[in-house]
Amino acid sequence: MAKAIRFHETGGPDVLRLEDVEVGEPGPGEVRVRHEAVGLNFADTYFRTGLYPAPLPAGMGVEGAGVVEAVGEGVTHLAPGDRVTYTGSPLGAYSTERVMPAGSLIALPDPISCETAAGSTMRGLTAAYLMRRIAPLKAGDTILLHAAAGGVGLIVAQWAKLLGLTVIGTVSTEQKAELARAHGVDHVVFYRRENLAERVRELTDGAGVPVALDSIGQDTFASSLASLKRRGLLVCFGTASGPVPPIDAMQLALAGSVFVTRPALADYIADPAERAELSGELFGHVAAGRITVGINQRYALADAVRAHQDLESGRTTGSSVLIP
């Protein structure tokens, strides 16, 4: 029997349970993967709380890396022993092993460890589409990056420097400020005690930024909007503090004819060719050392409750993984 974290009702971290599960053999188009590491992502809490609906009982987690143990009929691009990583549905990554669609898996380059992959596939592909698909950023541009010391933030900051961008990053503590600066953030703003929009205007000679990347949501939406330059873009790609408030179209006009988008990673990697291109670019940077991924927290699979408590309380920095 395999082990898996499951939840039978939505709620706080204590709804998560470690259970015995029967995995079985892969069917047509499927593979069985033995996990070596599992990604811990803030989006996991959205499923647990019910913000993202899921039929119950449900597994937990959408990101993992490990070794293919068996392949089903029709699977020709993978074989037992191959190292793979993935991100996306179906739920169930918090497990020692699982059966899943072969099309969801990304072959893992030899220089990339399973821990690094589990800590960077979702975050890294999110950073990839933010940097390479969301807006035509060019060298010399300044961007606003919320949660700059988080898992996505640290990768975005490094990628931004490769593109020649200036990064204004928000953090909540001095420790996180130090970490953000070490990964390429040029200007740190403590968003809980400083007026963010005023600081952004000061740092951009009154112009504002062309793009603001906001994973916090409710608490920062208004200040992010006020930080944009005329016809700038606010990218709301997370809701750590709660859902983004309803948007009145007129407020976008009054803010300078600005734009707001709420992207989802799934829509940027749905096409296999685009997913391969983005993952190739990501892992190429990581393998070459141009982007580093720090695994700053490791938890046993059985400690998923504590992992979620740490995640929601803001005690984590960078990437976190569960070890089955």
TrEMBL record:
Pfam families: ADH_N (PF08240), ADH_zinc_N (PF00107). NCBIfam families: PRK10754.1 (NF008024). This is NADPH:quinone reductase. The keyword Hydrolase does not apply. PANTHER family: QUINONE OXIDOREDUCTASE PIG3-RELATED, QUINONE OXIDOREDUCTASE-RELATED. GO terms for cellular component: cytosol. GO terms for molecular function: mRNA 3'-UTR AU-rich region binding; NADPH binding; quinone reductase (NADPH) activity; zinc ion binding. It comes from Streptacidiphilus jiangxiensis.
